[in-house]
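Progress note, project year one: complex with zinc ion.
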Amino acid sequence: MTGHMAMTASGQGGYSEGLGNRSRKATFLCYHSISDGGPPFLSLPPDTFERQLASMRRHGLVGGGTPALRELASGSRLPRPQVFLTFDDGYLDNHVTAAPLLAEYGFRAMIFVLPPYVDAAGAFDWPELHERQQAHPDVMRSMSWSMVEALAERGHEIGSHCQSHPHLPDLDDETLREELWSSRERIRSRLGRCDVLAYPFGEWDERVAAAAADAGYSYAFSLPSDGQREATALAIPRINVDQRDKGLRFEAKLSPFGRRAYLSEGAATVRRLRRRRGVRREASSVPEPAVPVTGSILLVCSPGGHLLQLLTLEPAWRDLRRSWVTLAGADVSHLLDGEQVTFAHGPTNRSLINLVRNLVLAWREIRRRRPDTILSTGAALAVPFFLVAKLLGRRCVYVESLTRISSVSLSGRLVYPLADAFFVQWPRAAVRRRMRYEGGIL
Ligand SMILES: [Zn+2]
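Model obtained:
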């Protein structure tokens, strides 16, 4: 009953900005297995996880739980920014591998288990998992109750992930209630409480959220692959973390700007179209279009979406000596913390004087840094840098924005004659002979 009361207090249908995963004060991440060589999308190597924990600690983040959720839902200010480290399914390695690392770095987590699987401490076997179960039988298994209890004793919160990992919106009312209710009761009888829920597959709708409230949950987490604009206590959007999240790609997820981009409708549209065309990438391959660059590199872009796309191209440039040119903007200093950054003159649109200034800057930067390659995702800043780079005999690589689905931006058209390689992120955007489509980057 208390859970229901808390839910009512925080407002089931009420929009809560603090729970929206778009601010510096609260970051919501979703993990699965922490293992080496685990299944694509569902695992992260322990050494990468450790580097992420170190980074989060460096950023001054603390591991949040239900008390912090209550504060956020009520609009209170938290003294320190929180990161909610949620783990779905209750993998054996959460106890064996993740928990010691969490303890070492002083983070607590929220772990969502399926009681029938915990009973058997056995193999996960819902239909969507079949292939991965065959390929990774040692990874795809549940913790036992004694492990779950040990985690709860160490201060981690244990929540429900339902009984059978169903697609909740597809269930009839009775089955829906049973999945939500029984799993919560089982966990409560073992641990004394169960206030939080992670929807299996992250899937929910209004009926599911109402049923979760009726079953007594105070908070529930989604995993919106199609974007989610609003957040309530019973629909808190998380961002998935998997083995692709190294270095700056993970840093982007810690920044409010990066999370806004990942949860945006633009990114959702891209994923949806990609799914429809069956071009969903296997995560075993790092998402990198063939941008063949060597030596040293100068990365040029405006802030915002252009910067995010350049960050997601990290596999193409992470091993190179590099420097950046961008404009001052939201979160640039956070996103590029520790990188060598020069700020260009803005605004770049319709400003002849800034174009001249940026030409001078480009001349100075390219002579000073001596990059072999200039890589840009746009927009207008690419023009002066490509002009000067060509004069000085450097290689220019341009990646058109993923928002350009069947055409090319003005900046793209201007730099096309100068570019040694020109990539588009949609097949139909390859409107000129030398424009190449090799997949999307977000
Ligand atoms: Zn799950």
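The first strand starts at residue 26 and ends at 31.
Residues 90 and 122 are 11 Å apart (CA to CA).
No further modelling is planned for this target in the current period.
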